[in-house]
Amino acid sequence: MGIVYLAALLTGTVCMLMLDHRFRLFFWRDARAAAIVTGVGILSLLGWDLAGIGLGIFLRGEGAIATGVMLGPQLPLEEPVFLLFLVLCTMVLYTGARRILGRSSRLPHESARRPEDRRLEGRPPDDQRLEKKNV
Questions:
Q1: What pLDDT, in 10s, does the model give residues 52-78?
Q2: How far apart are CA 125 and CA 66, in angstroms?
Q3: Looking at 6-15, 49-58, 69-78, 102-111, which range is the least confident one?
Q4: Cα–Cα distance between 133 and 128 in angstroms, integer?
Q5: Which H helix or E strand runs over 135?
Q6: What is the pTM of this model?
Q7: Claim to verify: residue 67 and residue 33 sit in the same structural domain
Q8: What is the biggest distance separating any 2 CA atoms in the chain, rounded to whole angstroms?
Q9: One-character DSSP codes across 13-65
Q10: What 8-state DSSP symbol labels residue 2?
Q11: Most C-beta atoms within 10 A of its C-beta, which of 37, 98, 106, 116?
Q12: Neighbours of 118 (CB within 10 A)
């Protein structure tokens, strides 16, 4: 029973990677940038955890579902795996949301507008009407 939490974290991580692969959101979009973001995220959060442990704020609780393997005082094996899952989940959600919100924009792109519409921008309304009649 002592490996349930670790197995759940690894299963969740694999599921996030499958979503990422399917929609090419993070690692399968730009593996180098994703590896850098993931590494920096994990190291930052791990530093935060170590600072909390050093100050006596974060303490390891006893749990029957955890492995009990400690990487340091009050730092269980599951913590870096959880941080990996957290960073990956956050980035997949962020990149997915950006993609969805980018598609919902109804405004035409600058290059999709007609040349005569771009040419008339900045003129007073009367000049625009006269120009359109002459075209």
A1: 999 999 888 778 888 989 999 999 999
A2: 71
A3: 102-111
A4: 9
A5: none
A6: 0.74
A7: yes
A8: 82
A9: HHHHHHHHHHHT-STTT-HHHHHHHHHHHHHHHHHHHHHHHHTT---PPP-TT
A10: T
A11: 37
A12: 11
Nearest to 127 by CA among 114, 113, 115, 135: 135
Residues 90 and 120 in one domain: no
Single out the residue of 46, 25, 26, 49 nearest to residue 36, CA to CA. 26
Structural domains counted in the chain: 2
Same domain assignment for residues 95 and 38: yes
CB neighbour list of residue 30: distance below 8 Å, 6 or more residues apart: none
Question: Would the pLDDT of 134 be above 80?
Answer: no
Nearest to 1 by CA among 70, 87, 63: 63
Mean pLDDT of 79-103: 96
Percent of the chain with pLDDT over 90: 65
Instruction: For tokens 């930052």, name the residue.
Output: 44
Cβ pair 73, 53 in contact under 8 A: yes
